[in-house]
Design brief:
The complex is a heterodimer of chains A (652) and B (178). By secondary structure, chain A is α+β, with helices and mostly antiparallel strands. Chain A is built from 18 helices and 10 strands. In chain A, strands 2, 3, 4, 5, 6 and 7 form a 6-stranded antiparallel β-sheet that branches. Chain A has a 4-stranded antiparallel β-sheet with strand order 1-10-9-8. The longest helix of chain A has 32 residues. The chains are: A alpha+beta (652), B alpha/beta (178).
């Protein structure tokens, strides 16, 4: 019964999404207040019914209702509660439901917090969000119904993919989706603007906090995914340039470019059509990511649900949404004029460079991700593009980007003068280079060009960020949320750069074969396998190794890597044993039983790796603080609008 | 009104991408062939599902092509393809061996009793050790082994008559009729 209620709620929410789109867009076009109000009510109704559907599916999982096909395929009676809940979005159908829930949530938030927008514009935004909801819910009901019954019911479920039975991965999809779907808000704002054919500073100011919030979630989502891959996949890598990772990274790059270009559009009324294009692009890449992952057009370790029929539907949806938005852009954007000019060392100019480099990186990653598809489609053979390509094409735009970032933060709008900042920046740069050289030589015993550049850039960006705070404190200038957020996020970029440089330059990875009692030395640490025992988990059996790590005879830590065999079958899963440290991680993963009591082990020494994720969290925190800046709040916006209107009236 | 070209470029780029996607969807890159294709079928000899005392295995059909179908009672796709398997068995073209994978003996026998038994024999692999040799990562999976003992084809997911006619029958023709 409960699954049927869920199914029914889904049908109702589709109908409400249709009314949301029709009444909002129709009402805005005809200037009909009643219709526009009906559209807003539909948003609330849609949210309620999607929540009911989501609740019904969660209930089916919690109650182990194996008469529901999706539940039987993705959970198991032995699966612990946390993972039974997380299993709701563990595969394709439930992921879509989660996506719909996120979209309904964002739509509700936009509707609730946009009362000061003018009514037709607000309705157009809501209507466009409704159109996107229609697409997703039709997709679900037509090709991927999570409530499909299994007759006769299974007595036992198959189990959630063991790779996904992990805390970080349980919360990774919801956060990532909040990011992906959040870009729908910026997209809807952009399309509504194009429909109306006018764009002012208020538009950019309205779009900024929404974009920042979505971008913040996406940042955390990507960082969680990377962290998970590090300790769960057993390779100890933190980024693989896998198509699915790229699918989440490309919208992030577009979103990063967008939040910077929005700043220029808001402050200076420049880059208008470019900003709109980025807003369309960021969400388009989120949808494209879904298409790539779900359709089976690209192969990936992540593609746990692929089906060409679904692919055709998503492609049709992509054409309608992205194609429609881009045609609208081609038609309307030429009308938007950016009048003012700016000097080469003004902040606008630095943000222009920021956008150029980010979009270059984005384009090259997109090319690499789709290149195998192009080659295959043109019958030029099956190729794969690997990390060597991506690492190079990512590094090339990132080096100048980070270099300019440090200066750009201190540059003033419009004027081309760095003024007193010049001396300050030169000393920070000099200090960064000297410290990078000394650190490389003293701590790691060698100086390598790329490592030194990486450390110097990291220190440069962090120092330059901190300098903003120091200067403001010294001159008793206030530090508003937007500035504080910027400083924290950029400091985080520096910190991540530090971590990436450290790991990529000085990591030591070694695969060894050890019997109990044997030891191997990695990076000055002795890893001794002291015991092997069997461990019984709730739904798996594991072999657990005890690895005692010591340095110069002094014990450092004991690691407990596991190799798990889940009762439901499938490949063995690796749970790495990791000792977390401020300066380095020590990592041991159990490989295969080589016979005669010997096991293969992967031992790793990972300097500074923590700072990659710590930096990412700071980046997200910065985004969050900036999104909460006073300026974006309703009353302030309303007051400013009044001031602006008065000023405009005064000049006439 | 004339639209400057630079505003149309994004739409054109997207249109080109869609063209590639349409071609790409037809190509089905998921169709990575099993590394076993063209290699000798992994040998096994394990107990029969119906009779624990009897051994069944890869050497049961010397000099003849045969099918190995991996199934289990917990697998929804296996239920889905069962009619197809019965139809293939009734054609009497090629013997069908079942590999009952990570399953319960009583449940599996009940399933065959209830739904009909398309298999000449069924190997019982409760711990999945034989399935690992065959590179099985889900059920159902179906392998065609040629008369020379080489694996000719692997199908992942429920078998349908369409797939059978398209992917399997042409491989049988030379051995059966030629």
């Amino acid at each position: 019964m409960i699954p049927e209620i869920g199914h029914f709620a889904l049908v109702l929410s589709l109908l409400l999404a249709i009314s949301q789109a029709v009444f909002s867009l129709g009402g805005a076009a005809r200037g009909h207040t009643g219709w526009m109000a009906a559209g807003r009510s539909a948003v609330v109704g849609q949210f309620v019914f999607v929540t009911v559907a989501f609740g019904a599916l969660t209930y089916a999982f919690v109650q182990r209702d194996f008469s529901v096909l999706y539940v039987a395929t993705n959970s198991n009676s032995q699966l612990p509660l946390l993972f039974r809940v997380a299993a709701v979005w563990g595969a394709h159908e439930g992921s879509l439901l989660l996506w719909s829930l996120c979209l309904a949530g964002w739509s509700l938030a936009v509707t609730a917090f946009s009362t000061s927008l003018d009514a037709p514009f607000r309705s157009r935004v809501i209507g466009i969000l409704g159109l996107i909801s229609i697409g997703f819910q039709l997709f679900m009901l037509m090709t991927s119904n999570p409530f499909e019954r299994l007759v006769p019911a299974a007595s036992e479920g198959q189990d959630l993919n063991p790779l996904l039975q992990d805390f970080a991965l349980a919360i990774h999809p919801p956060i990532l989706y909040l990011g992906y779907v959040g870009f729908a808000v910026a997209f809807a704002f952009a399309c509504a603007t194009l429909l109306e054919g006018r764009l002012d500073a208020a538009w950019a100011r309205w779009t900024r906090p929404w974009t920042l919030a979505a971008w913040m979630f996406l940042t955390v989502g990507i960082a969680l995914g990377s962290w998970w891959a590090y300790y769960e996949l057993g390779w100890g890598g933190w980024w693989f340039w896998d198509p699915v990772e790229n699918a989440s990274f490309m919208p992030w790059l577009a979103g990063t470019a967008l939040i910077h270009s929005l700043a220029v559009t808001e402050k200076r009324g420049l880059f208008k059509s470019w900003t709109l294009l980025l807003a369309v692009t960021a969400f388009s890449l989120s949808l494209l990511g879904t298409f790539l992952v779900r359709s089976g057009v690209l192969i990936s370790v992540h593609a746990f649900a692929t089906d060409p029929a679904r692919g055709i539907f998503i492609l049709g949806f992509l054409v309608a949404v992205i194609g429609g938005a881009l045609l609208l852009y081609a038609w309307r954007a030429p009308r938007l004029k950016s009048a003012a000019g700016f000097e080469i060392t003004s902040r606008e100019s630095f943000l222009l460079f920021n956008n150029a480099f980010l979009v270059a990186a984005l384009g090259l990653i997109l090319l690499g991700t789709l290149y195998p598809l192009f080659m295959d489609a043109l019958e030029l053979g099956k190729v794969s593009v690997g990390p060597p390509y991506f690492e190079l094409v990512f590094l090339v735009p990132m080096l100048p980007l980070l270099t300019l970032l440090g200066v750009g933060m201190h540059a003033a709008w419009k004027r081309g003068l760095l003024g007193s900042a010049r001396t300050r920046l030169l000393s920070i740069a000099a200090a960064a280079i000297v410290i990078a050289l000394i650190a490389g030589a003293a701590v790691y015993g060698e100086i390598r060009p790329l490592t030194t550049i990486g450390f110097a850039l990291a220190l440069w960006v962090m120092g330059s960020s901190l300098a903003i705070v120091v200067v403001r404190l010294r001159t008793r200038l206030p530090i508003p949320g937007a500035v504080l957020g910027m400083v924290i996020a950029h400091f985080g970029i520096g910190l991540s750069t530090l971590g990436i440089t450290g790991v990529q330059s000085f990591k030591i990875e070694q695969d060894v074969a050890l019997a109990v009692g044997d030891a191997a030395t990695v990076g000055g640490y002795d890893f001794r396998l002291t015991a092997l025992k069997d461990v019984q988990g709730p739904n798996y059996l594991a072999v657990e190794g005890e690895v005692v790590v010591s340095r110069n005879g002094e014990p450092v830590t004991t690691l407990h890597p596991q190799k798990r065999l889940y009762n439901s079958g499938g490949n063995a899963m690796t749970e790495a044993g990791i000792e977390v440290g401020a300066g380095r991680d020590l990592f041991a993963a159990l490989g295969d039983d080589l016979g005669q009591g010997r096991w293969s082990l992967r031992l790793q020494y990972k300097p500074l790796i923590r700072y990659i994720w710590l930096g990412a969290l700071l980046i997200a925190l910065g985004g969050g603080i900036a999104a909460l800046d006073r300026r974006y709040r309703r009353s302030v916006v309303a007051r400013d609008a009044v001031t602006a209107a008065a000023a405009a009236a005064g000049t006439q | 009104m004339k639209i400057p070209l630079r505003f149309v470029v994004p739409a054109l780029v997207f249109a080109a991408l869609v063209g590639f996607f349409i071609v790409g969807l037809r190509l089905n890159p998921g169709e990575i062939q099993s590394p076993l294709i063209g290699k000798p079928a992994p040998a096994f000899s394990i107990e029969s599902l119906g009779d624990p005392a009897r051994q069944v295995g890869s050497a049961d059909f010397p000099g003849k092509p045969w099918l190995l179908n991996v199934w289990a009672t917990w697998c929804a796709g296996c239920r889905e393809e069962h009619e197809t398997l019965l139809a293939i068995a009734s054609e009497n073209r090629v013997p069908l061996m079942g590999l009952n994978w990570r399953d319960d003996r009583a449940l599996a026998l009940g399933w065959l009793d209830q739904l009909g038994n398309p298999y000449v024999s069924v190997a019982f692999d409760p711990d999945g050790s034989t399935a690992i040799d065959w590179g099985v990562y889900g059920a159902p999976e179906t392998f065609l082994v040629g008369a020379d003992g080489l694996v000719l084809r692997k199908h992942i997911g429920p078998l349908t008559m369409a797939v059978w006619e398209r992917d399997f029958v042409p491989l049988l023709a030379p051995a059966g009729e030629g």
